[in-house]
Write a structure and sequence with these properties.
Blueprint: H1 6-37, H2 40-51, H3 65-89, H4 115-124, H5 137-142, H6 144-161, E1 172-177, E2 190-195, E3 208-209, H7 213-225, E4 231-234, E5 237-238, H8 240-248, E6 257-260, E7 271-272, H9 276-288, E8 294-297, E9 300-301, H10 303-312, E10 320-323, E11 326-327, H11 331-343, E12 349-352, E13 355-356, H12 358-366, E14 375-378, E15 381-382, H13 386-398, E16 404-407, E17 410-411, H14 413-422, E18 430-433, H15 441-453, E19 459-462, H16 468-477, E20 485-488, H17 496-508, E21 514-517, H18 523-532, E22 541-545, E23 548-549, H19 553-565, E24 569-574, E25 577-578, H20 580-589, E26 600-603, E27 617-619
Parallel strand pairs: 3-5, 4-6, 6-8, 7-9, 8-10, 10-12, 11-13, 12-14, 14-16, 15-17, 16-18, 18-19, 19-20, 20-21, 21-22, 22-24, 23-25, 24-26
Antiparallel strand pairs: 1-2, 26-27
Helix pairs in contact: 7-8, 8-9, 9-10, 10-11, 11-12, 12-13, 13-14, 14-15, 15-16, 16-17, 17-18, 18-19, 19-20
């Protein structure tokens, strides 16, 4: 399920890297064993299977591809006809009273789309494509600037003329066997999978129906009747009839993802803040949808929306929720929203980018132990709000299922004091922190203790600035941490003491396996790292380094010694630039490394004092 958040994309990318690395190692070992034991005939067969893999789909017995295609086409057409006939046969059944009257609207014309709207829609879609597409979607996006006016003109001509191009009506139908154990020669055991052209995917609604009750009603019914609609994005404006109709038929929809939002912060959003009835109906629409899993709320809503959502929260199936409304001056709405969050039994991922009253945090705290949330992303300025900061810290620490935490807001010192005192109770495994604590020694000390006291913390990313006390405290408690992955991005080039302490922090951590250094460090960092490298208890380390040391011979030598003295270094990626002394020292100490090669070594950028290019490539 996609949320569209940068943090989730980053986590997904990291997990993919780890997954592909494991797959690569497993395949390499497997193939090496096969090659080692293979004779000439087997080896040639292995090479052929690797260079031209082919997986034949399961299909019925047939004399030709054309004959089979016609047979499937006839079968699926007859199947649809049978379904339609079944509806016709039921026409004599007693009529039921519909909760909504028949639509009375007639569309006279469509609003033309602009180049900007078409561009936003195309670039927001995934780059997958269908065999019916004239060009690959990735190539279309790369050349979009040149052909965008033609695409927009094509769409507008279709809207103004009322003609839908024939190629857009086609789809690639792929028969898929429902279960491997079923008889492949029986067409009843196949389901049709329609692969649609890219253009058909470009469907969002941006119409202004705020003064058109009949059209709003009809559009709500249209949404409900689409049996395969899974993703709905509402950028338009609607009459109250849209929300009341949607609420009454919500349980019949198959929608899994709903976005109620603007394209940008400057766009006009649907504003329900003065519309209590529409807000209530929209809340009921959300809570009644049996298949809704991903919800994004960036509009503005009346308090009735939050009270209704809170009362119906336990009935929802929502797993991902993103919220961005300003409730700072609305205590009642803040309380109800907190209850809504905590009462949802299936909510796993929560993104809070709005502003909230203190009552939101106190209510969240009181219900924290009941939540099922595993991933939390938070960005609000609580710097001048000690009570809210304390409550939010306790909320974090009391959540029994919280594993991934991203802190991009600003917090009062009380947040760090409270977090430190309760750290051992948390279940957090991944922490990303991005607040400037460079002039806040007390907060820096408490945050360092928070990190070191967490018993389950495996993945730590530090993207901001910290006072020297952070590094002193981290160094003194490093051996107690469970951290396996550390990413660091702070400029310590003018801070020798902090550099020394950070080097000690790295070398003292018993479980560190993956280290990424994205910024600059004082020479003392490299001296200390070199002197302590052999004492590390690291099982396996993946080191990523990106700093310009081309004019720093001493630091280059020490960094080379640090690399060579580490007893278990397996993966090394060098993206920085280095003085010639780095390469001289590395060469002279290469034979002392433990264990001996093979390594995975990647030097993507490097230069000596002569400006020459470093080695580029990889070896294993």
């Amino acid at each position: 399920m996609k949320s569209g958040l940068r943090f989730h994309k980053e986590l997904y990318r990291i997990e993919c890297e780890s997954y592909y690395e494991c797959i690569f190692k497993a395949k390499s070992t497997y193939l090496k064993n096969l090659i080692a034991d293979a004779d000439t005939k087997t080896l040639f067969g292995l090479v052929k299977s690797l260079s031209s893999p082919h997986h034949s789909p399961i299909l019925p017995d047939h004399s030709s591809d054309c004959e089979l295609a016609n047979r499937f086409a006839k079968f699926f057409v007859e199947k649809v006809s049978d379904v339609v006939s079944a509806f016709s046969d039921s026409s004599s059944a007693p009529a039921t009273t519909s909760p909504v009257g028949p639509p009375q609207c007639n569309f006279s014309e469509f609003r033309p789309v602009t180049d900007l709207e078409v561009k936003k829609l195309i670039t927001s879609l995934p780059s997958k494509h269908c065999q019916l597409d004239p060009i690959p979607t990735l190539l279309l996006k790369d050349t979009l600037r040149d052909i965008l006016p033609l695409i927009t003109k094509l769409f507008n001509f279709s809207l103004s003329s009322g003609l839908f191009p024939e190629p857009f009506k086609s789809s690639l139908l792929l028969p898929l066997l429902k279960k491997p154990a079923l008889d492949p020669n029986s067409l009843n055991n196949y389901r049709p999978i329609a692969n649609l052209p890219f253009w058909i995917e470009i469907l969002r609604h941006t119409e202004d129906l705020s003064e058109r009750p009949s059209a709003s009603r009809a559009f709500a019914q249209f949404i409900d009747k689409m049996n395969h609609l899974e993703n709905l994005t509402l950028y338009g404006w609607y009459h109250d009839e849209f929300y009341s109709t949607s609420s009454s038929i919500a349980s019949f929809t198959k929608i899994e993802t709903l976005h109620d939002r603007c394209e940008t912060l400057h766009d006009r959003c649907e504003n329900l803040s003065e519309r209590p009835s529409a807000s209530r109906d929209f809340a009921q629409f959300i809570c009644k949808m049996n298949h809704l899993k991903n919800l994004t709320l960036y509009g503005r809503y009346h308090n009735e929306f939050y009270s209704t959502s809170s009362s119906m929260a336990s009935t929802t199936k929502i797993e991902i929720l993103s919220h961005g409304e300003n409730l700072r001056e609305r205590p009642s709405a803040s309380r109800d929203f907190a209850q809504f969050i905590c009462k949802m039994n299936h909510l796993k991922t929560l993104t809070l980018s709005g502003s909230y009253h203190d009552d939101f945090y106190s209510t969240s705290l009181s219900m924290a132990s009941t939540t099922q949330i595993e991933t939390l992303w938070h960005r609000e300025n609580l710097r001048e709000r000690p009570s809210a900061s304390r409550d939010f810290a306790q909320f974090i620490c009391k959540m029994n299922h919280l594993k991934n935490l991203t802190l991009r807001g600003s917090y009062h010192d009380d947040f760090y004091v409270t977090s430190s005192s309760m750290a051992s109770t948390t279940k957090i495994e991944t922490l990303l922190h991005d607040e400037d604590l460079s002039v806040r020694p007390s907060a820096s000390r408490d945050f360092a203790q928070f990190i070191c006291k967490m018993n389950h913390l495996k993945n730590l990313r530090l993207y901001c600035q910290y006072h020297d006390d952070f590094y002193v405290t981290s160094s003194s408690r490093a051996s107690t941490t469970q951290i396996e992955t550390l990413w660091h991005d702070e400029d310590l080039s003018k801070r020798p003491s902090a550099s020394r302490d950070f080097a000690q922090f790295i070398c003292k951590m018993n479980h560190l396996k993956n280290l990424r250094l994205y910024c600059q460090y004082h020479d003392d960092f490299y001296v200390t790292s070199s002197s302590m490298a052999s004492t590390t208890k690291i099982d396996q380390i993946d080191l990523w380094h990106d700093e310009d040391l081309s004019k720093r011979p001493s630091a280059s030598r020490d960094f080379a010694q640090f690399i060579c003295k580490m007893n278990h270094l397996k993966n090394l990626t060098l993206r920085g630039s280095y003085h010639d002394d780095f390469y001289v020292t590395s060469s002279s100490m290469a034979s002392t490394t433990k264990p001996p090669p093979p390594y995975k070594f990647e030097c993507l950028s490097g230069s000596g004092t002569d400006g020459g290019k470093g080695y580029q490539g990889g070896a294993q």
